Amino acid sequence: MTGAPTTPGRDALAYAASCLVRHSAEFGPAPDLGQAGPDARLVLMAGETVILRAAPAETGTALLTPDEAGRAGERAIEIYLGRVEGRPVFAGAVPEEAALLFPAPGHRALDLRALAAEGAVAREEQGLIATAKSVLAWHARHRFCANCGSPTTVAAGGFRRECGTCGLHHFPRTDPVAIMLVRRGEACLLGRGPHFRPGMYSCLAGFIEPGETVEAAVRRETREETGVAVGAVGYHASQPWPFPASLMIGCVAEALSEAIRTDPDELDDARWFTRAEVAHMIAGTHPEGLSVPPATAIAHLLLRDWVEGVIEGAIGAAPDPDA
Ligand SMILES: [Zn+2]
Q1: Ligand 1 geometric centre to CA of 150 (Å)
Q2: pTM score of the predicted model
Q3: How many angstroms does the Cα of residue 305 sit away from the middle of ligand 1?
Q4: d(CA 144, ligand 1 centre) in Å
Protein backbone atom coordinates (compact mmCIF):
# COMPACT_ATOMS: atom_id res chain seq x y z
CA MET A 1 0.00 0.00 0.00
CA THR A 2 1.11 3.54 -0.63
CA GLY A 3 0.92 6.35 1.85
CA ALA A 4 -1.49 8.26 -0.40
CA PRO A 5 -4.62 9.54 1.29
CA THR A 6 -7.69 7.35 0.86
CA THR A 7 -10.57 9.25 -0.70
CA PRO A 8 -13.92 7.87 -1.90
CA GLY A 9 -12.52 8.25 -5.43
CA ARG A 10 -9.67 5.88 -4.71
CA ASP A 11 -12.00 3.42 -3.00
CA ALA A 12 -13.93 3.04 -6.24
CA LEU A 13 -10.86 2.08 -8.33
CA ALA A 14 -11.15 -1.51 -9.59
CA TYR A 15 -8.41 -4.07 -8.84
CA ALA A 16 -6.38 -1.52 -6.84
CA ALA A 17 -6.77 -3.08 -3.37
CA SER A 18 -5.63 -6.60 -2.52
CA CYS A 19 -5.96 -8.73 0.61
CA LEU A 20 -3.30 -11.11 -0.73
CA VAL A 21 -0.06 -11.59 1.20
CA ARG A 22 2.00 -12.52 -1.82
CA HIS A 23 4.06 -15.69 -2.00
CA SER A 24 7.08 -13.53 -2.82
CA ALA A 25 6.70 -11.92 0.63
CA GLU A 26 6.83 -15.30 2.39
CA PHE A 27 9.79 -17.39 3.43
CA GLY A 28 10.15 -20.94 2.19
CA PRO A 29 8.77 -22.91 -0.74
CA ALA A 30 5.20 -22.74 -2.04
CA PRO A 31 2.86 -25.24 -0.35
CA ASP A 32 1.30 -28.05 -2.32
CA LEU A 33 -2.47 -27.86 -2.82
CA GLY A 34 -2.80 -31.59 -2.18
CA GLN A 35 -1.21 -31.19 1.24
CA ALA A 36 -2.82 -27.87 2.15
CA GLY A 37 -6.08 -29.53 3.26
CA PRO A 38 -9.53 -27.97 3.60
CA ASP A 39 -8.07 -24.64 4.74
CA ALA A 40 -6.87 -23.95 1.19
CA ARG A 41 -8.82 -21.62 -1.08
CA LEU A 42 -8.91 -21.60 -4.88
CA VAL A 43 -9.68 -18.91 -7.44
CA LEU A 44 -10.94 -20.48 -10.67
CA MET A 45 -10.52 -18.55 -13.92
CA ALA A 46 -11.74 -19.40 -17.40
CA GLY A 47 -10.00 -16.77 -19.49
CA GLU A 48 -11.49 -13.48 -18.27
CA THR A 49 -14.29 -15.19 -16.34
CA VAL A 50 -14.13 -16.01 -12.62
CA ILE A 51 -16.37 -18.35 -10.65
CA LEU A 52 -18.00 -16.81 -7.56
CA ARG A 53 -19.89 -18.18 -4.61
CA ALA A 54 -22.60 -15.54 -4.59
CA ALA A 55 -25.66 -15.58 -2.39
CA PRO A 56 -28.41 -13.28 -3.75
CA ALA A 57 -28.03 -9.65 -2.62
CA GLU A 58 -24.78 -10.38 -0.80
CA THR A 59 -21.18 -9.67 -1.66
CA GLY A 60 -19.75 -12.81 -3.22
CA THR A 61 -16.33 -14.37 -2.99
CA ALA A 62 -13.99 -16.00 -5.50
CA LEU A 63 -12.19 -17.88 -2.71
CA LEU A 64 -13.64 -21.38 -3.16
CA THR A 65 -12.99 -24.41 -0.95
CA PRO A 66 -11.09 -27.33 -2.52
CA ASP A 67 -14.37 -29.32 -2.61
CA GLU A 68 -16.22 -26.54 -4.41
CA ALA A 69 -13.39 -25.96 -6.88
CA GLY A 70 -13.23 -29.70 -7.60
CA ARG A 71 -16.69 -29.55 -9.16
CA ALA A 72 -15.30 -27.59 -12.12
CA GLY A 73 -13.25 -30.64 -13.13
CA GLU A 74 -9.66 -30.72 -14.25
CA ARG A 75 -7.51 -27.58 -14.09
CA ALA A 76 -5.07 -26.83 -16.91
CA ILE A 77 -2.64 -25.26 -14.46
CA GLU A 78 -2.55 -24.50 -10.77
CA ILE A 79 -0.47 -21.81 -9.15
CA TYR A 80 0.08 -20.64 -5.59
CA LEU A 81 -0.63 -16.94 -5.03
CA GLY A 82 0.07 -16.52 -1.30
CA ARG A 83 -2.15 -16.21 1.75
CA VAL A 84 -5.36 -14.51 2.84
CA GLU A 85 -5.89 -14.41 6.60
CA GLY A 86 -3.31 -17.19 6.92
CA ARG A 87 -5.05 -19.54 4.47
CA PRO A 88 -3.04 -20.67 1.44
CA VAL A 89 -4.65 -19.38 -1.78
CA PHE A 90 -4.22 -21.02 -5.15
CA ALA A 91 -5.49 -20.14 -8.63
CA GLY A 92 -6.44 -22.55 -11.37
CA ALA A 93 -7.37 -22.26 -15.03
CA VAL A 94 -10.47 -24.16 -16.15
CA PRO A 95 -12.08 -24.42 -19.60
CA GLU A 96 -14.82 -21.92 -20.53
CA GLU A 97 -17.46 -24.70 -20.52
CA ALA A 98 -16.54 -25.64 -16.95
CA ALA A 99 -17.13 -22.06 -15.83
CA LEU A 100 -20.43 -21.65 -17.65
CA LEU A 101 -21.77 -25.02 -16.50
CA PHE A 102 -20.36 -24.85 -12.97
CA PRO A 103 -22.60 -27.40 -11.24
CA ALA A 104 -23.46 -25.81 -7.93
CA PRO A 105 -26.37 -23.65 -6.81
CA GLY A 106 -25.37 -20.32 -5.30
CA HIS A 107 -22.45 -19.95 -7.71
CA ARG A 108 -22.06 -17.98 -10.89
CA ALA A 109 -19.50 -17.25 -13.55
CA LEU A 110 -18.78 -13.56 -14.02
CA ASP A 111 -16.66 -11.62 -16.48
CA LEU A 112 -13.83 -9.76 -14.75
CA ARG A 113 -14.95 -6.34 -16.08
CA ALA A 114 -18.51 -6.94 -14.83
CA LEU A 115 -17.07 -8.05 -11.48
CA ALA A 116 -15.54 -4.61 -10.97
CA ALA A 117 -18.55 -2.70 -12.29
CA GLU A 118 -20.98 -4.64 -10.07
CA GLY A 119 -18.76 -4.70 -6.99
CA ALA A 120 -19.58 -8.43 -6.91
CA VAL A 121 -16.76 -9.22 -4.45
CA ALA A 122 -15.14 -7.22 -1.65
CA ARG A 123 -12.82 -4.52 -2.97
CA GLU A 124 -9.79 -6.24 -1.39
CA GLU A 125 -10.55 -9.39 -3.36
CA GLN A 126 -10.51 -7.61 -6.73
CA GLY A 127 -6.75 -7.11 -6.62
CA LEU A 128 -6.20 -10.77 -5.72
CA ILE A 129 -8.39 -11.88 -8.64
CA ALA A 130 -6.48 -9.51 -10.95
CA THR A 131 -3.23 -11.20 -9.88
CA ALA A 132 -4.73 -14.65 -10.57
CA LYS A 133 -6.00 -13.55 -13.98
CA SER A 134 -2.76 -11.90 -15.11
CA VAL A 135 -0.44 -14.70 -13.95
CA LEU A 136 -2.65 -17.46 -15.39
CA ALA A 137 -2.88 -15.58 -18.71
CA TRP A 138 0.92 -15.36 -18.76
CA HIS A 139 1.27 -19.12 -18.19
CA ALA A 140 -1.19 -19.87 -21.00
CA ARG A 141 1.01 -17.95 -23.47
CA HIS A 142 4.48 -18.82 -22.19
CA ARG A 143 4.69 -22.60 -22.14
CA PHE A 144 7.83 -22.57 -24.27
CA CYS A 145 11.19 -20.88 -23.71
CA ALA A 146 11.47 -17.62 -25.66
CA ASN A 147 15.23 -18.23 -25.92
CA CYS A 148 15.50 -21.81 -27.20
CA GLY A 149 11.94 -22.99 -27.82
CA SER A 150 12.00 -25.89 -25.34
CA PRO A 151 9.04 -26.56 -23.02
CA THR A 152 9.36 -24.77 -19.66
CA THR A 153 8.25 -25.89 -16.19
CA VAL A 154 6.43 -23.99 -13.45
CA ALA A 155 8.52 -22.85 -10.44
CA ALA A 156 8.20 -20.52 -7.42
CA GLY A 157 4.55 -21.47 -6.99
CA GLY A 158 3.81 -20.14 -10.48
CA PHE A 159 5.69 -16.83 -10.38
CA ARG A 160 8.46 -18.22 -12.59
CA ARG A 161 8.95 -20.65 -15.45
CA GLU A 162 12.27 -22.40 -15.95
CA CYS A 163 13.81 -23.82 -19.09
CA GLY A 164 15.47 -27.22 -18.48
CA THR A 165 17.40 -26.98 -21.76
CA CYS A 166 19.09 -23.56 -21.70
CA GLY A 167 18.52 -22.80 -17.99
CA LEU A 168 16.83 -19.44 -18.52
CA HIS A 169 14.25 -18.25 -15.99
CA HIS A 170 11.13 -16.43 -17.20
CA PHE A 171 8.97 -14.14 -15.04
CA PRO A 172 5.36 -12.94 -15.37
CA ARG A 173 5.30 -9.60 -17.14
CA THR A 174 3.55 -6.38 -16.22
CA ASP A 175 3.07 -3.87 -19.04
CA PRO A 176 3.27 -0.24 -17.88
CA VAL A 177 0.85 2.24 -19.43
CA ALA A 178 1.03 6.00 -18.87
CA ILE A 179 -2.38 7.67 -18.53
CA MET A 180 -2.44 11.42 -18.10
CA LEU A 181 -4.56 14.34 -17.18
CA VAL A 182 -3.08 17.05 -19.42
CA ARG A 183 -4.13 20.45 -18.11
CA ARG A 184 -3.74 24.07 -19.12
CA GLY A 185 -5.22 26.60 -16.75
CA GLU A 186 -8.89 25.77 -16.23
CA ALA A 187 -9.03 23.24 -19.09
CA CYS A 188 -7.93 19.66 -19.64
CA LEU A 189 -7.27 17.67 -22.79
CA LEU A 190 -9.39 14.57 -23.44
CA GLY A 191 -9.73 12.31 -26.44
CA ARG A 192 -12.00 9.61 -27.82
CA GLY A 193 -10.71 6.37 -29.28
CA PRO A 194 -12.55 4.70 -32.17
CA HIS A 195 -13.81 1.90 -29.86
CA PHE A 196 -15.25 4.23 -27.16
CA ARG A 197 -18.97 4.19 -26.48
CA PRO A 198 -20.76 7.18 -28.08
CA GLY A 199 -20.10 10.49 -26.35
CA MET A 200 -17.38 9.22 -24.00
CA TYR A 201 -14.09 11.11 -23.69
CA SER A 202 -11.14 10.01 -21.57
CA CYS A 203 -7.59 10.85 -20.57
CA LEU A 204 -4.92 10.15 -23.17
CA ALA A 205 -2.90 6.98 -22.55
CA GLY A 206 -0.27 4.77 -24.12
CA PHE A 207 2.18 1.96 -23.46
CA ILE A 208 5.56 2.96 -22.09
CA GLU A 209 8.32 1.81 -24.44
CA PRO A 210 11.58 0.07 -23.45
CA GLY A 211 14.19 2.53 -22.21
CA GLU A 212 11.64 5.29 -21.70
CA THR A 213 10.78 7.16 -18.48
CA VAL A 214 7.15 7.62 -17.44
CA GLU A 215 7.54 11.38 -17.98
CA ALA A 216 8.94 10.93 -21.50
CA ALA A 217 6.11 8.53 -22.38
CA VAL A 218 3.52 11.09 -21.23
CA ARG A 219 5.13 13.76 -23.44
CA ARG A 220 5.54 11.46 -26.45
CA GLU A 221 2.00 10.01 -26.34
CA THR A 222 0.38 13.42 -25.89
CA ARG A 223 2.32 14.87 -28.82
CA GLU A 224 1.72 11.79 -31.02
CA GLU A 225 -2.01 11.68 -30.40
CA THR A 226 -2.86 15.41 -30.28
CA GLY A 227 0.19 17.46 -31.26
CA VAL A 228 0.10 19.19 -27.85
CA ALA A 229 3.48 19.81 -26.17
CA VAL A 230 3.82 18.87 -22.50
CA GLY A 231 6.24 20.22 -19.86
CA ALA A 232 6.16 19.15 -16.22
CA VAL A 233 4.78 15.69 -15.40
CA GLY A 234 3.87 14.39 -11.95
CA TYR A 235 2.66 11.06 -10.58
CA HIS A 236 -0.84 10.84 -9.09
CA ALA A 237 -2.04 7.21 -8.67
CA SER A 238 -1.82 3.77 -10.26
CA GLN A 239 -4.12 0.86 -11.05
CA PRO A 240 -3.48 -2.75 -12.07
CA TRP A 241 -5.47 -3.49 -15.24
CA PRO A 242 -5.57 -7.26 -15.80
CA PHE A 243 -6.33 -7.25 -19.58
CA PRO A 244 -4.03 -9.07 -19.71
CA ALA A 245 -1.43 -7.57 -17.37
CA SER A 246 -1.09 -3.79 -17.48
CA LEU A 247 -0.25 -1.29 -14.81
CA MET A 248 -1.91 2.07 -15.42
CA ILE A 249 0.35 4.86 -14.13
CA GLY A 250 -1.80 7.93 -13.61
CA CYS A 251 -0.03 11.25 -14.15
CA VAL A 252 -0.79 14.95 -14.24
CA ALA A 253 0.89 16.90 -17.02
CA GLU A 254 1.24 20.59 -17.80
CA ALA A 255 0.52 21.50 -21.45
CA LEU A 256 2.84 24.01 -23.12
CA SER A 257 0.68 24.49 -26.23
CA GLU A 258 -3.02 24.45 -27.13
CA ALA A 259 -3.44 23.71 -30.85
CA ILE A 260 -4.75 20.17 -31.42
CA ARG A 261 -3.86 18.01 -34.40
CA THR A 262 -5.24 14.51 -33.83
CA ASP A 263 -3.72 11.38 -35.28
CA PRO A 264 -6.72 9.73 -37.04
CA ASP A 265 -5.17 6.28 -36.52
CA GLU A 266 -5.29 6.79 -32.75
CA LEU A 267 -8.17 9.13 -31.97
CA ASP A 268 -11.54 10.08 -33.46
CA ASP A 269 -11.42 13.41 -31.67
CA ALA A 270 -9.59 15.37 -28.97
CA ARG A 271 -10.71 18.58 -27.29
CA TRP A 272 -10.05 20.91 -24.41
CA PHE A 273 -12.77 20.70 -21.75
CA THR A 274 -13.37 23.23 -18.98
CA ARG A 275 -13.52 22.12 -15.36
CA ALA A 276 -17.27 22.89 -15.27
CA GLU A 277 -17.88 20.76 -18.36
CA VAL A 278 -15.98 17.80 -16.92
CA ALA A 279 -17.98 18.12 -13.69
CA HIS A 280 -21.15 17.72 -15.80
CA MET A 281 -19.64 14.77 -17.69
CA ILE A 282 -18.88 13.05 -14.35
CA ALA A 283 -22.37 13.80 -13.02
CA GLY A 284 -24.08 12.64 -16.24
CA THR A 285 -25.60 16.09 -16.83
CA HIS A 286 -23.58 17.32 -19.83
CA PRO A 287 -25.95 19.15 -22.27
CA GLU A 288 -24.53 17.24 -25.29
CA GLY A 289 -24.68 13.94 -23.40
CA LEU A 290 -20.90 13.65 -23.21
CA SER A 291 -19.46 11.37 -20.51
CA VAL A 292 -16.25 10.04 -18.96
CA PRO A 293 -15.24 6.46 -17.96
CA PRO A 294 -16.85 4.94 -14.83
CA ALA A 295 -15.51 5.38 -11.30
CA THR A 296 -13.78 1.98 -11.48
CA ALA A 297 -11.27 3.40 -14.01
CA ILE A 298 -8.24 5.52 -13.14
CA ALA A 299 -9.18 8.05 -15.85
CA HIS A 300 -12.26 8.85 -13.77
CA LEU A 301 -10.16 9.32 -10.63
CA LEU A 302 -7.78 11.70 -12.42
CA LEU A 303 -10.71 13.75 -13.74
CA ARG A 304 -12.63 13.76 -10.47
CA ASP A 305 -9.54 14.77 -8.49
CA TRP A 306 -8.88 17.58 -10.96
CA VAL A 307 -12.49 18.82 -10.84
CA GLU A 308 -12.54 18.66 -7.02
CA GLY A 309 -9.23 20.50 -6.68
CA VAL A 310 -7.25 17.52 -5.32
CA ILE A 311 -4.90 17.99 -8.28
CA GLU A 312 -3.94 21.62 -7.83
CA GLY A 313 -0.88 23.84 -7.93
CA ALA A 314 2.53 23.26 -9.47
CA ILE A 315 3.55 19.70 -10.34
CA GLY A 316 6.37 18.63 -8.06
CA ALA A 317 8.36 16.83 -10.71
CA ALA A 318 11.70 17.38 -12.36
CA PRO A 319 11.68 19.96 -15.18
CA ASP A 320 11.36 18.70 -18.74
CA PRO A 321 14.86 17.49 -19.72
CA ASP A 322 13.94 17.85 -23.41
CA ALA A 323 12.95 21.50 -23.09
ZN1 LIG B 1 15.50 -22.33 -23.10
Answers
A1: 5
A2: 0.91
A3: 47
A4: 8
